[in-house]
């Protein structure tokens, strides 16, 4: 029974690590997306930091990425930046890869 218990604990620990890493990648990705959008909005460094934090917060509105995409697209279009949904989604994918690379480099 001990072997089974050890395996179960190991599986639970791996699951917890994987979930933690997924959360950290998503949060980093959203911060990078906020910085990407802030550059298109010509924000100051202080405004960029605040905006990146707002994008991270926007991800807690609902499950999935639609809340972040909606925020970015709405803010960019409201500011007169010519951009479409596909461009925002492409940036989301690119920043996801970049966030994962950054976090793997830290490990």
TrEMBL record:
Domain of life according to the entry: Bacteria
Short name of one Pfam family: ATPaseInh_sub_z
Matches recorded under InterPro entries: ATPase_inh_sub_z, ATPase_inh_sub_z_sf
Name of this chain's protein: DUF1476 domain-containing protein
Source organism (scientific name): Sphingomonas naasensis
Lineage: Bacteria, Pseudomonadati, Pseudomonadota, Alphaproteobacteria, Sphingomonadales
């Amino acid at each position: 029974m001990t072997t089974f218990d050890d395996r179960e604990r190991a599986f639970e620990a791996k699951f917890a690590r994987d979930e933690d890493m997924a959360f950290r990648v998503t949060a980093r990705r959203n911060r990078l997306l906020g910085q990407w959008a802030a550059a298109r909005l010509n924000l100051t460094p202080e405004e960029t930091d605040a905006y990146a934090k707002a994008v991270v917060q926007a991800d807690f509105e609902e499950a999935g990425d639609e809340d972040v995409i909606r925020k970015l697209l709405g803010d960019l279009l409201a500011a007169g930046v010519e951009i479409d949904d596909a461009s925002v989604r492409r940036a989301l994918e690119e920043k996801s890869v970049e966030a994962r690379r950054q976090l793997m480099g830290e490990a």
